[in-house]
Amino acid sequence: MMANEQSGAEDEPPSLLWGLDPVFSAYARLYIKDILQIRESRQVPGIYFYKNHPLFQVDVLGTVVYKREREDFYCYGVDDSTGVINCLCWKDEKWRDQGDSVKGKGHGGVFNVEEQLRKLCEAQRSRCMLEIGDLLQVRGSLKTSREQREIMASTFYKVTDPVMDVQIARMLDMPQLYRDCYNKSFQVPCGELEAGTTDSGGLSNIQSLLGQSVRILKEFLKEKEVPKFRPYDVEYLLHPLIRSPVSSTSTGQVEATSVGPSFPTQVKNLLKETLKLLQREGEIFRKVLSPDELYHVTEQDKDLLAAIRDVIREDSKREKYAEKGCHILHILSSVRQRYSRNLSREALEVALKFLECNSDIISTTDSHYTVL
Question: How far apart are the first and last CA of the chain?
Fold first, then answer.
């Protein structure tokens, strides 16, 4: 068994090349049985491998077999007949705001915008509130919590499928996806390999290169106290990393690598993977997903830190949180509603650690926080 794990780790392509695999940026439509069995990467936590395909997002369709409700989220057990997996589905804050304020205000024969908006929200809410036996479609990222695999849903809804045409179509598609994509090995393009194999170190040099670029960006952002940036603002910092290996090689080796990706392409690929790694670590995040690729530095984002402090200060006064303080999942849900829906748990943890080091908050347990 140990030998299998070691050979599996050796089969992992370098993280710098993961973006070349289409499976990595897609929602993988795997059977739940395979999701529960795929191994986690030894290079980057939170990334998983089916065969040698890196992935962290999945698409699941199945029947709800159990349900637990919390203040901020639902926990559904989803069964696709191959296995059962936990799906954490966050509640939308606007559902709580839909009360009696707009009920009974309609006037006969008059189009009431508020009334129609309430009906629309109710329809949306009904599709996201499921009972045991309902069919659920879930898309989200994979997590391992307490040694159990679960899905943190980014999109989920009830599927109405009275004649089972949706389920049948999926049953027919899945074997073909496995045959044409998932069960085929990910082949790294030769040109990309040549870009990172200028000496006998081979693929290990790519890992070293990525580690250096992450360290350079971290030091720059901390030293300059950069609150936000775009990729082209920091691209020049990585130029020496691409140039230095070439300048130290012989003429013959330079000619051999010249057929690979161009210098700008290598720099952009390295920067892209570096930013992905910093996002997974929570050091940076994107407040808004838009064509304008703007990154916020977690520890330097004063608005984010203020929003976290306000949530903890206000909610710690409530009876429910008076003793232990606010749980990290509650803080995450509240801050997403107030500040950014794209805030990751990793970024929140970095911000909480920063606030605690500055004595703005204190932790009462591993996952509870309150104000001084």
Answer: 49
- Whether the CA torsion 46, 47, 50, 51 is positive or negative: it is negative
pLDDT at 140: 92
Task: Tell me how far CA of residue 325 lies from CA of 56, 169, 333, 347, 361, in angstroms.
Answer: 31, 47, 15, 20, 10
pLDDT score, position 151: 94
Q: How many CA atoms lie within 13 A of 300 on its CB side?
A: 17
What is the pTM (predicted TM-score) of this model?
Answer: 0.54
Quick one: pLDDT at residue 101? 45
Cα 133 to Cα 62, 78, 159, 349: the distances in Å are 9, 10, 11, 36
User: CA 245 → CA 201, 273, 295, 337, distances in Å?
Assistant: 12, 19, 29, 46
- Tell me how crowded residue 81 is: count the other CB atoms within 10 A of its CB: 12
Q: How far apart are CA 338 and CA 315, in angstroms?
A: 14
The answer to whether 89 and 153 have CB atoms below 8 angstroms apart is yes
Residues of the chain where predicted confidence (pLDDT) is lower than 50: 1-10, 98-106, 190, 193-203, 244-258
Q: What is the pLDDT of residue 372?
A: 77
